[in-house]
Amino acid sequence: MQITIVKSKEEAGKEAFKYVKEAIEKKEDSVLGLATGSTPEVLYEEMINSDVSFTEATAVNLDEYVGLDSDHPQSYHYFMEDQLFKHKPFKQTFVPDGTLGEEEAIKQYDDILEQHPIDIQVLGIGVNGHIGFNEPGTSFDSTTHKVQLTEETINSNKRYFDSIDDVPKTAYTMGIHSIMKADKIILMAFGKEKAQAIVQSLEGEVTEDVPASILQKHPDLVVILDEEAASELSSAKQ
Ligand code: F6R
Fold this sequence. Notes:
There is one protein chain. It is built from nine helices and ten strands. By secondary structure, it is an alpha/beta fold. It binds fructose -6-phosphate.
């Protein structure tokens, strides 16, 4: 595991971009595993403003709310179009289909992941240690599945909706096993509210109660944190 602590989100975006650029330079048809939420926005900004072409690359996203179609402004499809794909075209992009029934959605996405093994996976982390929408208690062996979102996650995500009642209560997500199969993983976190999840995930016991703790076992994990998110780490405290 390699941990980089930076002064600002913007610096983190630049740092994460170095790895994405390196992957594309090595293999222009790389498969990038991407995330939504506020954390990766600084990376997408760097990608958009760069002269790196992604027209041969494939993007595979982590998750989607059940019931929201791709035109819904709060859907993760829409988010990705808006934040990245409409500015920087990819050869192909995949996000779980929130309009499909459970069985079909899961099969479709597991097939996509099988056909497009991820070279580099970008992750944010929830305040409860979730990655993707894999909430505490999710099996480390999980592949794509439907999840019941926790109150904590619904509360964190309500900022994107008119009211908390509009936040979907279920989602489709890549599983933890699917995430761990990526060749390289870049985990980013910013702000004091992520400090506890970060210390538990990186220095605590590897347990399904803290989904991101499994990342300790990944052979090529890069962690990019701002000082607040890193503030509980023992190495940062010395
Ligand atoms: C989003 C995702 C989530 C977020 C996490 C952090 O696709 O998979 O795990 O990465 O909830 O969200 P932000 O970045 O908004 O703090």
